[in-house]
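Lab notebook: predicted structure, single chain.

Context: the supervisor wants predicted structures on file for every construct in the current expression panel, including those that have not yet been purified. This is the next one on the list. No modifications to the sequence; it matches the entry in the shared construct table.
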Amino acid sequence: MELFDELSWSDSFLLGFGPMDAVHQEFVGIVHTMLTCPDADLLAHLKTFERHADDHFSQELKWMKSTNFPAMQCHDDEHLAVQKSVSEVILLVEQGDFSVGRSLAKALADWFPGHADYLDSALAQWMVKLDTGGAPVVIKRSMLPSSIPIET
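Prediction complete. Output recorded below exactly as produced.
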């Protein structure tokens, strides 16, 4: 599995459930910062991520419980594994092992797109369907320079 050296927000991460899309944008921003910050700032950003993940995953668990989401256990198990890894890595970074903190950030950058595509998209569709009776409509823009038409 390829580990990404960076993670940046793009419309490809949009799932069509506004509250989840907003928290995912924040998630991506924090992970990007962990990948690019100086070592001296890494511990603070890891702790920021830990707080974010606790709130983010807790909110998703509330949605799943309150709506009897069928894949709740599998989804929550992934969140619990991430939270466990984050708390273990923070202890190591506090002892000066910045490389393990960078490895965690790269692993999160690699993990997030798949988690969002499969588990979070299912939850987003579930939430929107319960609210509106239909699937979310998501319009995604391609922001790559090569895809922008050049007018002549």
